[in-house]
Specification:
Blueprint: E1 3-5, E2 10-18, H1 25-36, E3 45-48, E4 54-65, E5 71-78, H2 86-93, E6 98-104, H3 110-126, E7 135-141, H4 151-160, E8 165-167, H5 176-195, H6 197-201, H7 205-215
Parallel strand pairs: 2-5, 2-6, 6-7, 7-8
Antiparallel strand pairs: 1-2, 3-4, 4-5
Helix pairs in contact: 2-3, 5-7
Length: 234
């Protein structure tokens, strides 16, 4: 889980983008890197197989310093979605503080989505990470394609679980920032409840989220709310 170096006043968070093969995990990180532009000098590191699918992981390291002098490091990873790379997914998931599950909106991919989410739950358990200890958000990607789950169906899915649900067309950048900010916010809340970041380091949610917005070139308070069963925003 989160790495806290009290002596050097550093907090390192690990966020993992998880989901079936070709659901858009790498595209999300590529778009985040693009959105951040001059806000970060970090490089997006990618390892691919011969067929151009992610083999190990994509890594986007981020860093900023709070007003109180606390260094915050964020490491964003993706996992390979192919069934053959189950062991790699489990390793990459080790120590995760937050997970964005990237689902494919196409109806034909329903089974793959379900199997991948079951795989996520299984690997969290094998890494001794409790479901209540990790922040999880769900993104339904590829909303631009034909044959996708309707907005009503996505709202119905959102009503059945406790995870915030976002819609996206990652290849166009739509919904990418919203998913990331939702994950960052939920991760902060989980860590605050466990480690009292406000009390120990003076790290307030408002400042943390303002830094997240700034890295994306967005105004703090911008509407990034998830889908709700009623079809509006929560």
């Amino acid at each position: 889980m989160v790495f806290i170096d009290i002596q050097h006043r550093e907090v390192t968070l690990k966020l993992v983008y998880y989901g079936p093969a070709l659901s858009g995990k790498t595209t999300n990180l590529q778009q985040l890197h693009r959105l951040m532009g001059g806000q970060t000098a970090s490089e997006l590191l990618t390892l691919n197989t011969r067929d151009d699918r992610t083999l190990f992981f994509d890594l986007l390291p981020l860093r900023f310093t709070t007003r109180g002098g606390l260094d915050i490091k964020l490491k964003l990873f993706t996992v390979p979605g192919q069934v053959m790379h189950a062991a790699t997914r489990r390793i990459v998931l080790q120590g995760a503080d937050g997970v964005a599950f990237i689902a494919d909106s196409q109806v034909s991919q329903t089974r793959n989505n379900n199997e991948s989410f079951a795989d996520l739950r299984r690997n969290l358990a094998e890494n001794d990470i409790g479901l209540d200890d990790v922040a999880i958000v769900i993104q339904f990607n590829k909303r631009d394609l034909p044959g996708i789950r309707s907005d009503a169906e996505v709202r119905k899915i959102a009503s059945k679980g406790k995870e915030p649900v976002y819609e996206a067309t990652a290849i166009e950048g739509a919904g990418v920032a919203e998913t990331f900010l939702g994950l960052a916010d939920l991760t902060w809340a989980k860590l605050e409840s466990r480690y009292a970041l406000r009390e120990k380091f003076g790290l307030e949610r408002a400042e943390f989220m303002a830094q997240m917005h700034a890295m994306l070139g967005m105004t703090p308070g911008a509407d990034v709310r998830p889908v709700t069963p009623e079809g509006g925003a929560s």
